[in-house]
Amino acid sequence: MLFFTVSHRGHAYSLELPASTTLTALHAQLEELTSVPPSMQKLLWKGKKAANDDTTLQQAGFKDGMKIQMLGSTPDEVSGIKAVEDERAKRDRIMHERTLKPQAKLRSTGSSSSSALQYRFHNVAPLLHLPEPDSAQAMLDKLANDPAILHVMQKHKFSVGLLTELAPHEQPGLLGLNENAGQKIKLRIRTNRYDGFRLYSEIRRVLCHELTHNVWGDHDENFKELNSKLNREVTEFERARATGTHYLTSSADPHGIYQPASELEAQAYVLGGSSQSTPVVGESREAMRRRVLEATMNRLRKEEEELELSCGTGKDVSTSNPDGPSTS
After folding, report:
1. Helix residue ranges, H only, the chain
2. Residue 245 located in a structural domain
């Protein structure tokens, strides 16, 4: 009798078999233990000798007490990976076909098909070891194909190699991370308990923050100005689409001069317009507008401060605050 251990994906299986047992019989027993079919099993051990399926364990070099490593995937795992790859190939084919068709231009200058192909997210992929990878893929695809996000990417010539997600349990202190100025952007899209996904508007705001890191690494005044500008342009783009506007020039900034107050005021209108505010007795309409605007501006500043704290760009992410999310 031979006593030996077979390890597969962190699990160790202790076996006791006669030395005359064939490798075929061993593979069959390992299939019962791991659900990996014999054709997909690969065994590695010290002193391995050339063998075929009829070779006995003794002839193959098995010895008492030896440790064997097994590699291999189950049919369900293989089919799952193939399904994801097929879906990604289908999506890439559809996106490629769309780029070959004439597109309606939302601006007078328009964006050429070459810029649309260049300034975008070139790859989108979830973390397959996390729950519901298909739902995560759908969320990332929605972000990658968001018309307002693509608008600012083409306008500012942003290109991102890979858009993927952050695992809450692996990097609990981060909401976002930009690696190598756009080579890879990671976003926290899931709730801490993995029971759903965070609000789309919040994730997209983090994405704007991370896109700003394509240009500026530190959270200095240059970064804050561009980040605020991207958020304003997203707001203006969506307002233009909603009203059917084709020329997206800002009435508050007709000459292209950046004005932070205008951006904040635009967001104040969208996020908490005076029509949705409860008036104070005796308060004039103008006073109420100023009060709502000030409250919204304070909220936006606080959100930006929280985003900076939860940003992993330029930080050692291994030392991120474990008690709360951060971004980069």
Report:
1. 23-34, 75-100, 113-118, 133-144, 147-156, 200-212, 221-243, 260-272, 285-309
2. yes
How many Cβ atoms are within 10 Å of 28's Cβ, its own excluded? 12
Q: CA 23, 28, 33, 35 torsion: positive or negative? A: positive
Select from 131, 133, 100, 129 the least CA-distant residue to 116.
100
Q: How far apart (Å, rounded) are the C-alpha atoms in residues 217 and 220? A: 9
Whether residues 305 and 228 share a domain: the answer is yes
Contact 182, 214 (CB under 8 A): yes
Other Cβ atoms less than 10 A from the Cβ of 3: the count is: 12
Using one digit for the tens of pLDDT, what is the confidence trace for 102-136?
A: 655 444 444 456 767 888 999 999 999 988 999 99
State the pTM of this model.
Answer: 0.49
- Amino acid, single-letter form, for residue 258: Y
Say yes or no: 193 and 253 in one domain. Answer: yes
12 plus 115 within the same structural domain: no
Distance CA 112, CA 129 (A): 38
Q: Is residue 84 part of a domain?
A: no
Kindly state whether residues 13 and 113 are assigned to the same domain. no
Residue 196 CA to residue 173 CA, distance in Å, equals 18
Which of 151, 298, 145, 294 shows the shortest CA–CA distance to 235? 151
Whether residue 14 contacts residue 65, with contact meaning beta carbons closer than 8 Å, is answered with: no
Number of domains in the chain: 2
